[in-house]
Amino acid sequence: MSTPSAVRRTALVTGANRGLGRAVCDALAALGHRVVVAGRHKGSVQRVAAELGGDALAVVLDVTDDESVRRCLEQVETVDILVNNAGVLLDGGTSPASVPLDLVERHFQVNTLGAWRVSQAYLPGMLKQGWGRIVMVSSGVGAFSNGLFAGAPAYSVSKAALNAVTVLLAEEARDCGVLVNAVNPGRVRTRMYPNAEQTPRDAAVDIAWAATLPDDGPTGAFLRSRRRIPW
């Protein structure tokens, strides 16, 4: 299937070995794009790439590790689309007054700094070629308009920080052909939210849409169901 613009892009998806990340890979491949399946476990990303077929590529990537990101960049020097999907939710049921700060740090390392680290690796190439799309997979609990969630404070604050990174990177890339946005996919039935009603496949459609926006599409925006929502 060809893309609406008939331009085939290379898309790297982090945390792509299962759940929402895997579904995003499927959605982008269905649009005709070449997909780079990135994740920490070699066997699982290789399996996903093999199932996608074609010229899909598996890359071992730990978004918290500078050296791992450097090796990924050596294997795949430039990408047109980056979907920062890798994330953790490990603090459910804690409270802001008692959540262990080393657990908070872990959320920031993956959810915020991990996405920032990979974006720093690939944004220069996008700016050089004059085209790129970066999508941060965020959450409604990271939005002040929605209300931060005290029942998972580290996760909530790390996503709020990710939203801030989105705005900053979008401003730096403004008018350079690169759009940077955050998507709130809602609650998705994954290992993180096993009882959610929405399937990964349903949520992936909106993320793939944000990853393939036209040149006059929004940037520095928080998106849900293909529309801008307040931060």
From TrEMBL:
InterPro entries: NAD(P)-bd_dom_sf (IPR036291), SDR_fam (IPR002347). It comes from the Bacteria. The keyword Ribosomal protein does not apply. Keywords: Oxidoreductase. Belongs to the short-chain dehydrogenases/reductases (SDR) family. PANTHER family: 5-KETO-D-GLUCONATE 5-REDUCTASE, ALCOHOL DEHYDROGENASE, PUTATIVE (AFU_ORTHOLOGUE AFUA_3G03445)-RELATED. This is SDR family NAD(P)-dependent oxidoreductase. The lineage of its organism: Bacteria, Bacillati, Actinomycetota, Actinomycetes, Streptosporangiales.
